[in-house]
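Forum: Protein Structure Q&A
Topic: Joint prediction for protein chains with partners

I've read a bunch of threads here and the consensus seems to be that you should model interacting components together rather than docking separate models afterwards. I'd like to see that in practice. Below is the full input, 704 residues plus whatever partners are listed. Could one of the regulars post the assembled result?
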Amino acid sequence: MESVNELVTILPAIIIGFAGLLVMMLDAYIENVRLVFRTTTLFTLGALGIAINDMFGHSGEAFYGLITYGGTAAFGAVLVLIGTLVTVILSRDYLEKTGSHIAEVYSMILFGTFGMLILVSANNLVTLFLGIETMSICLYVLAGLVKNEKKGVEAALKYFLLGAFSTGFLLYGMALLYGASGSTFLTDIATLDDKGMIYWAGVALLLVGFFFKISAVPFHMWTPDVYQGAPTTITAYMATASKSAAFVAFIFVLSRALPEARAEWGDVIWLFSILTMVIGNVLALVQDNVKRMLAYSSIAHAGYILIGLAAGTDAAYSAVLFYLFAYTLMNLGAFGIVAYYEWHKGLDFTEVKNYAGLGFKQPVMGVLMSIFLFSMVGIPPFAGFIGKYRVFAAAVDEGLISLVVVGVLASAASVYYYLRVLINLYMHESDPGITLIRPGVLYSATLIILAALTIYFGVKPGDLTNLLGSFKGISY
Amino acid sequence: MLEQYIPILLLICLAIILAVSFIVLSHVLGPNRPNSNKLGAYESGMDPIGQARDRYSVSFYIIAMEFIVFDLEVVFIYPWAVRYQEFGAGTFWSMMLFIGILFLGLLYTLRKGTFDWDLVHSRAKKSSY
Amino acid sequence: MELDWYLSLSAVLFTIGVIGVLTRKNAIVVFMCAELMLNSVNLTLVSFSAQHGDVHGQILVFFSLCVAAAEAAVGLAIIIAIFRNHLTVDISQINLLRW
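Posted by a regular:
Agreed with the consensus. Here's the joint model:
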């Protein structure tokens, strides 16, 4: 019965899973959306608190080595739960205002989060696969949440078909790795001496599967369509929580299962990193739709993160974790503001030209948007700068100079499309007919906290970087 | 040599007699008031003869979805049923937990009206499917 | 046991699935091809599992079967919703979102 005692090591996941079931039943039998929202927020907050506490605790393996806890896994859980909490809070107002506030959203978000929490602690191909799929299936549903919105359902279909397609590659990769090594445990795969055709084919297919999930070019085709079509707060959820979870799992696979093959996958990731940065940024330049622009920007960010993975040292991995943290904060914020503008029905507030002069109408929202976008560009003193700086520094230490040069140039190009939004917000004449509603206290408070954290960790990153550095290796 | 098969022969005869007599008796004794619904295949469902490209009710898809999901959970119960005695109480209760969660799913889908075939009078009308 | 035969069959099935996903136009057929990919992988897993005399591969097959079922349920729902909105399931005609 030692498994029962080990339950405490995945307590955040258990809380979220229980909350998901509870919320589902509340939705069916009490039908009070407010109650469902409060329950969801409360449980997510509790799970977040426990996950933060776990970061400082000890780490190890549990359930016969199926999962790991503490350290990187706990930090991954924190990233996911921050994303979930903010999404839940922002979704209420956004969905209420756009007239599609249904309680199923919350149970789907919770189940998706459950999958992500399993994913960030996976130490075995079975848990990895289950985590990824639990997450993805919930995201397919969430993308098509608004059933009579043509674009949303279309986004759900595209996401679903390409997701199922990529699952095939991922699973085939796992099957071949299992065939080569005779075990599904990540650490057992690492000890394999005799690497034949089957092993390399498995590694390649597994990488393709992961590239799909983190939307690296050329496997990014679904990202802009899905991010544009899905409800905006759900897009924020996909862009932050699910991507962070996928990246943390990717780190685990690379560092635990394939450390011996680092030279080989290092080169592959090097190539994909350059492709992702260049194509993501170039295509973002020509977008007129803010959600689509942010989608390409998130592809570009995946490219910067891949620089860290290509470097493949512990320092680089901890830099990647910091980057993911900064990325989560600023993307949640930026999508939150876009969602706020979308409350207003008169114009399509995902088109950048309709943002003309909005910055002065609700000054707080305008300032917050500026903070998030400047952080994405990577300008000090925001967290985005520190993230980029640390990833680039770790890559330089490994001699990946060319990669860093491309990264810096790509960031410079990205200034254009981020500033374009701000220029529209502040420099253009506003349409006098448009009045903006004041955002609710909870909504603006959440965004202000995100902005404050973005600045705080940009000015004073020391505590977090020390903590990330203290995770014993990256393994646990 | 073939004598040992006589009981089976008897059983077959008995089955045929019973089947025929039930059909004949119900035709003779039962009231016979046909309408278009009753004359349909299985008194529900689709006409088995005709174009295969007809459109059919979306309710079939929903039942199919429910079926596929609940049906497949059995793959976990089979190996458990074969071996659980060797592993003790923990394994037993984890399966009970699993079935309990499945049961919650069933309660949810019942309440949401997925199984109410008659869409006009059901709660499902509210939630648009 | 001739492992190679099973692996070849599964690779062929997987390729058929990939080609189907890339070339077919009907959303349901595309989805069936994706399911074919998953099932061919299951064949690989089961044959490796028998080869190694290790049950972990078969356990992964159980889970992948269930995932495929859950995906099928969600997929059918999404395809129904697509049909209600666009009155077609031809993916070449569902193109509101493009750059």
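The radius of gyration of chain A is 21 Å.
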